[in-house]
Write a structure and sequence with these properties.
The protein has 13 helices and 20 strands. The protein is an alpha/beta fold and 425 residues long. The protein has three domains: 171 residues, 3-Layer(bba) Sandwich (FAD/NAD(P)-binding domain), CATH 3.50.50; 84 residues, no CATH class; 107 residues, Alpha-Beta Complex (Polyamine Oxidase, Chain A, domain 2), CATH 3.90.660.20. The strands form five sheets. Strands 8-7-16-17-18-15-19 form a seven-stranded mixed β-sheet. Helix 1 runs parallel beside helix 13. It starts with a strand and ends with a helix. Bound molecules: flavin-adenine dinucleotide. The site of flavin-adenine dinucleotide (FAD) has 36 residues, from helix 1, strand 2, strand 15, strand 19 and helix 13. The site of flavin-adenine dinucleotide has 36 residues, from helix 1, strand 2, strand 15, strand 19 and helix 13.
């Protein structure tokens, strides 16, 4: 078959790998001039490694991702350093990267709260019954089982940070998926995620997958006479779309009304992430990931010192930090200039290190996306669009369909490969 894939993110590239191996003729169309999609990165001339536009790491439980890397013969380039994740309590940062540290965390109070926190964590780790958990919101479930103090200290800030005004609407299966499938050890790829994406693209090209960069597809139509699908006028037997549900609806207006309605009704958050290269390290204690309580007046949700995860040697001695936030599309951060956003962030950087001053900043970059985090509401499984669309030969695989899992490169690989299997039967 002659197959087109729209998007050279991890989902599209993983599908291409399997479709090519199954003997098909595969072309990937990618609107950007590079591969990697949301996990792509960028590099300064004096850096050996790239940094991701949106901070990325893998979990040890990312079996689909790590399995694919092994299959590509690149496993020796995966590394799992031991970075420190911290949580704020009464103006002090505490390690929060192991069960023991979580139990030591003073924000959980004493006795009963710690026991409830421990039991809730254990239950979510052990149960596989997410179907029961999607019937209730995370807000209600955690208040009931973890209790007010644990919820308000631990889970409410995460929900508010990630989902803003939707925070009380997100279902408990979302939180289950995070606790069930994630590990505290975090991994990355030698040279950065972009290096992995480029090596993957190279392997695809060696297999004679055609990757057309800088080509933004405008429409996918059925050709009634031949039964094939026309991708901007070029004919294919089958097409896999890996863009957001909104873009997919625009690309394929011939989809039946109820499928289109399903795509357009899905909710998601956008993200704005600022990356800064600094002359000095921001965290005096070598912390990597600061869980920032936005409700305490911080202008972002996560502060990540990337060079406390991988060495600043890879960046010519620059210290790299990210300040990122998940935001509703239309939030003012989407329209502010980079300089205006920096003015909002600078006072917060001083809270992490009072010595920080603007002359530490060598350069900043701001990356924005409207589609960063799907929002799973109660009984969300009924709203997940089918991978095989009602149009014969047209398939759709995106972050919005990896549910009950939370979006991530691991699940992009999984759904891309699943779509590939469906396309060849
Ligand atoms: C802030 C943030 C932090 C994240 N952190 C992590 C993390 O730590 N670990 C992790 O594993 N995952 C993380 N993720 C999630 C991860 O990036 C995604 O789950 C994954 O990259 C999605 O891959 P995909 O192939 O489904 O989609 P995408 O990567 O979005 O790929 C879709 C591709 O389609 C292309 N495209 C769109 N329209 C067209 C068109 N008309 N024509 C041609 N091409 C088109 C796009 O340019 C894009 O390259 C994070 C995401 C964000 C936003």
């Amino acid at each position: 078959m002659k197959i087109a894939i729209i998007g050279a993110g991890y989902g599209g590239m993983a599908a291409a790998w399997d479709l090519k191996k199954a003997g098909h003729d595969v072309t990937i169309f990618e609107s950007a001039n590079y591969v990697g999609g949301l996990a792509s990165g960028f590099k300064e001339p004096h850096w050996d490694w790239s940094v991701e536009k949106f901070y990325h790491h893998w979990f040890q439980s990312d079996s689909e991702m790590l399995g694919l890397i092994r299959e590509l013969g690149l496993a020796d380039k995966v590394m799992f350093p031991r970075p420190l994740t911290v949580m704020l309590y009464k103006n002090k940062w505490y390690p929060f990267d192991s069960i023991l540290n979580a139990l030591r965390f003073p924000g959980l109070g004493f006795g009963l709260n710690k026991i409830r926190f421990g039991f809730v964590g254990l239950f979510l780790r052990l149960t596989n019954n997410w179907q029961a958990l999607e019937k209730v919101t995370a807000h209600e479930w955690m208040l009931k089982y973890a209790g007010k103090q644990v919820y308000e200290q631990m889970w409410q800030p995460l929900l508010i940070g990630k989902f803003a005004s939707f925070y009380k609407d997100v279902n408990m299966a979302w939180l289950w998926a995070r606790m069930h499938a994630r590990t505290t050890r975090l991994g990355t790829f030698e040279g950065g995620f972009q290096n992995f994406s480029d090596l993957f693209a190279e392997k695809l090209r060696e297999q004679r997958v055609e990757i057309r960069l800088g080509v933004s597809i405008k429409s996918i139509k059925r050709d009634q006479a031949s039964g094939s699908l026309s991708v901007d006028g070029e004919s294919f037997d089958k097409v896999l779309v890996t863009t957001s549900p909104n873009l997919t609806a625009k690309l394929c207006p011939e989809l039946p009304e109820n499928y289109l309605k399903g795509l357009l009704e899905l909710k998601s958050m956008g993200a704005v992430v600022m990356t800064l290269s600094l002359k000095h390290s921001l965290s005096k204690d070598g912390f990597y990931w600061f869980n920032v309580p936005k409700e305490e007046g911080y202008p972002f949700l996560a502060l990540v010192e990337h060079t406390n995860f991988v060495s600043s040697e890879h960046f010519g001695g620059d210290h790299i930090i990210y300040a990122g936030d998940y935001l509703e599309v239309g939030h003012e951060y989407f329209s502010l200039s980079d300089a205006e956003l920096l003015e909002k962030f600078i006072p917060a950087f001083q809270k992490f290190n009072p010595e920080f001053s603007r002359d530490w900043i060598k350069k900043i970059w701001v990356h924005k996306t409207n589609y960063a985090q799907p929002i799973p509401l109660v009984n969300h499984s009924k709203n997940v669009p089918a991978i095989q669309t009602p149009i014969d030969g047209l398939y759709f695989a995106s972050m919005s369909q990896v549910y009950p899992w939370d979006r991530g490169t691991n699940f992009a690989v999984e759904i891309g490969r699943k779509a590939a299997r469906m396309m060849v039967v």
